[in-house]
Specification:
The chain is of the alpha/beta class. The chain is built from ten helices and 20 strands. It has one domain: Glycosidases (TIM Barrel, Alpha-Beta Barrel).
Length: 496
């Protein structure tokens, strides 16, 4: 009897498991499409990566949503971050030069304020991406350059420092598990814009075919094992790569700067650089074209009239580079992403409603594209530092701007979502079909332009009647028929 009972119980569990698995398959709760699109399928994302239903993990800690903060406290908008509920917050930075003024002596008391910020992030359930940068004078290869390279004979000292820092700060109450080594190291210190104490790095070498990336691999090799000795669960990120232009487009790119990752991977011809980091971090910026809805990045051959945010093109380029050296499965993050306005953000056209609305729509387009691209995180720059018009909050009052609301709604609609497929059946439309345990949600927006080159709407006939349609601000739309007028403002079409 016991054996029969166990057999029946096992059979019940097996059947229940199959039923639950069917519930979350992309086609189970899909809208009633016809032909090929109606089949249960493994979708291929805009990066070419395949996503299987069985690998889903509907955990809010795994969402792509993140923001950069100047300081992680209530005076800098922490309450608004908690309300928006992203998974990630990025902080620039832990200064090595502050913590180790003298080689071998660690003065953690100089980091008291930053330590409290780490605790704040942990207490609020945020994954903190902590940048480490600033070479102390005793380790500088180029005298006076805190942003610059570490001397080769001091790489072991940096490894010792990282061991001590990770051992201290990856444990409670700090719980820092994501460590980014420098910020934008792929910049040449000889460039006229470079200052010795830049917030971004200056490790690049414009005369090198890989722009100095191979030396950065030396640094990663020197510290990676030491970091893992301190805490094997910690994740090591490359310095957020600038990637200013696509070297595959020589008409608009005459620099080797974007080959920095390839230099890391080559590592002086050993081709083992991918063994010394866990995550590729990169930055992606688009530029507002001073007219409503219009933006692009010429150096990457992208604009609002094609696939939209340039982060997808950069992700494809990086993935191709990783695959070339056998590291195609490395996760990627955009640790800075935004749309820039003007040269300062103080220009009149950066203050008007056209830009603010464009930026708000861009937020929704951007995070949908990041999710479809399979990124581990997509971190908006920034929450309240109003650099070139990019902040989600007013930098003075911390009052939410329209794009903050859009960020919050996008997180609510897509927090558990995974890509089912790219929607291609509507000309002039960018669209993604995402799925979660409750069904599917489509994100649709127009890339069409009128005769004057301005954004225009596209009529979309849906394959059935959706449960609900929402705009980016969280307002419900109930079409009387199974059709929508889709503009450059993304819509969330739910099939529940």
């Amino acid at each position: 009897m016991l054996k029969q009972y166990i057999s029946r119980t096992f059979l019940f569990i097996l059947i229940a498991g199959v039923f639950i698995e069917l519930l979350v398959r992309p086609g189970f709760a899909s809208p009633p499409l016809s032909g090929e699109i109606n089949s249960v399928q493994v979708a291929e994302s805009v990066t070419g990566s395949k996503y299987l239903p069985l690998t889903m993990n509907f955990s809010p800690s795994n969402t792509v949503f993140g923001v950069e903060m100047q300081q992680i406290n209530s005076d800098n908008g922490l309450g608004e971050v908690v309300t928006a509920a992203p998974s990630w917050v990025r902080r620039n930075a832990l200064y090595w030069s502050d913590a180790e003024l003298t080689e071998g002596t660690y003065t953690w008391s100089n980091l008291t304020d930053l330590e409290q910020e780490m605790i704040n992030a942990s207490q609020d359930g945020l994954n903190l991406v902590l940048i480490v940068r600033s070479t102390p004078p005793w380790a500088q290869e180029l005298d006076g350059y805190y942003c610059g390279r570490i001397r080769m004979d001091k790489l072991a000292a940096f490894g010792n420092f990282m061991y001590e820092a990770v051992k201290r700060y990856s444990a409670p109450p700090f719980n820092v598990k994501y460590w980014q080594i420098w910020n934008e190291p792929d910049a040449d210190p000889s460039h006229p814009s470079i200052q010795p104490d830049n917030i971004y790095g200056c490790w690049g070498d414009e005369h090198d075919p890989y722009f100095g990336g191979e030396y950065f691999a030396d640094v990663l090799e020197a510290i990676y094992a030491r970091i893992k000795q301190a805490n094997s669960a910690v994740q090591v990120l490359t310095g957020g790569l600038l990637l200013p232009c696509n070297v595959e487009l020589p008409a608009v790119c005459n620099s080797n700067q974007s080959k920095y990752l390839e230099g890391i991977l080559r590592h002086h011809g050993v081709n083992d650089g991918g063994n010394y980091f866990d995550v590729v971090a990169y930055h992606s910026y688009d530029y507002y074209y001073q007219r409503f809805g219009e933006y692009g990045n010429t150096a990457w051959g992208t604009r609002w009239t094609d696939e939209g945010p340039s982060l997808a093109a950069k992700a494809r380029y990086l993935r191709k580079t990783l695959e070339k050296y056998g590291f195609g499965n490395k996760p990627m993050m955009t640790t800075e992403v935004t749309v820039l306005c003007g040269s300062t953000g103080n220009e009149g056209y950066c203050q008007d409603n056209a830009f603010q609305t464009t930026k708000a729509y861009y937020v929704a387009q951007n995070f949908a594209t990041a999710l479809a691209s399979g990124l581990k995180a997509n971190i908006w720059y920034s929450l309240s530092a109003n650099w070139r018009g990019t902040s989600l909050l007013d930098s003075s009052s911390l009052e939410p701007l329209p794009d903050y609301t859009v960020f919050k709604v996008a997180r609510e609609k897509l927090q558990y979502a995974r890509l089912a497929r790219v929607i291609t059946e509507y000309p002039g439309i960018n669209g993604f079909d995402f799925f979660d345990s409750n069904g599917h949600v489509w994100v649709l927006w127009s890339r069409a332009a009128d005769g004057s080159g301005h954004p225009t709407t596209v009529e979309v006939v849906l394959p059935g009647t959706p449960s609900t349609v929402w705009d980016v601000f969280g307002d419900q739309i109930y079409p009387n028929e199974t059709s929508l007028s889709v503009s450059i403002m993304p819509l969330y079409v739910e099939w529940r």
